[in-house]
Design brief:
Shape: globular
Number of helices: 13
Radius of gyration: 19 Å
Order of helices and strands: HHHHHEHEEEHHEHEEEHHEEHH
Oligomer: single chain
Helix content: 25-40%
Amino acid sequence: MIESYRKAAVESAMSTNSARNSFPHWSESISKITNDRLSGEIIFNLGDHLREIFGTSSQGNTRVGENTNSSVSAGGAAWESLVCWYLNLCLIGSNVVVIKSKKDLLPRFVTDAIAVKYNNFKSNTEADLIYIAFPNVLDWPEKNERELFSQYFDRVLSTAFAMKDISIGIIQTKTNWNDNAQIPMLWDMVYSAKGFGRNVSVGSKGRSIESFASFTYSFVTVPSQKDVDKNYKVTSTAVNRVRNISGGNYWGLPTKNGVADSLNEFIGRNLSDYVQGSDLIGWLDQQVALLDGDYSYFGLHSKYKLPKS
């Protein structure tokens, strides 16, 4: 059931026009980076190259170095899809799925729990992606084919007892770091404080983030600025704004100490308990052979052509 959910999440993320138009460029870049070879370590290390891969996007998507409002806006959805694709690729075979915030995929008990209310006004959080880490042991009932995934998981997991065994996390994705760093900083403050006084509260319909085993808030950026060494230092304002958010701040480049982690560090920081043996690369080595079969929807087969939906 979880792998069916992952398939639906990835196919949904890659079904947007921006993702489908970009994937041929991304796959060509991946092919060059990997020399058409795949292993657990090679897949893991793609996290260090996501900015490079994303920068090959065409069809109006943001290119690294461009920073116009139109290019940033057009590329945001593509970056979100690429991050969703990569994290799920690293999580295949685990009990964790990363999904876009869509009604047909996201359980209602999650949207209720992360809702932020200002008095009686319900505000939408910056939840571009959400991960759900399911219990390691659970007897899944048969799914009614007419049920949406969101309805199914609501029915199975929405009890207080079940929710205590689930971990969730919000992942905000942005192409431009400078213009957006204050957004995750402020949202993480709200969630960490569980609201502010009587006027701002987290959760609705009797559910909150405290209903879960754990909750994190993370930030993932390209970033789109061309000279990252010049723009992002330990002392940079944008860096310090996201330094202490609960789930960490990441980019599509190798880890730079004191500035940002490569996205390949996300799972080790937040989800290591859900990877068998806590050895992500070793686990991925065992899954690589399935990329031509059960996991063909990732498009890493037949010379990296995205399969038709």
